[in-house]
Amino acid sequence: MIVVTVAALICTVFTGFISQSTGRMKTLTVFASASIVLSAPLLYFVFISTYIYEKIFYASILIFVSATAFGPIPAFLSERLPTEIRNTASGLVYNGGLIIGSWSPIIAIGLLSNTKSFSPNLIPLALALNISIGGIILLIGAILNPDTRNLNLN
Prior knowledge:
Helices cover 77% and strands 0% of the residues. The chain has one domain. Helix 1 runs parallel beside helix 3, helix 2 packs antiparallel against helix 6 and helix 5 runs antiparallel to helix 6. It is mainly alpha-helical and 154 residues long. It is built from six helices and no strands. The N and C termini lie far apart (42 Å).
């Protein structure tokens, strides 16, 4: 968890930096798409890996393509919201999303562990579905919103 959390920190800063040059919506689109496509195979490899270094490797890649898409979101939120409510609204939206997003793996594992008809082999798929739903939400937001990277906010 420590290694993956540090990877998330580094990668979030990286995607924030990338969004400065390529645009926030393009960065969100690339990483959201990658998380949708790669979450199931990467979670499968995390679950079947026998060595801790393999698990760390696959989990770090998973974090890179999924969680780091959130790097550009604070800048995007602050550019989209009116000055009068910017700090409160962006804090509410960003942290509310983190709270709800952190519940989804717990809910998925809880549902799978409490139902006799589910196999433990479905846990990676349930987690991948959660990540994919988040990626789809990000992708929809990236498509529907304009890129604010070079927008004059005055």
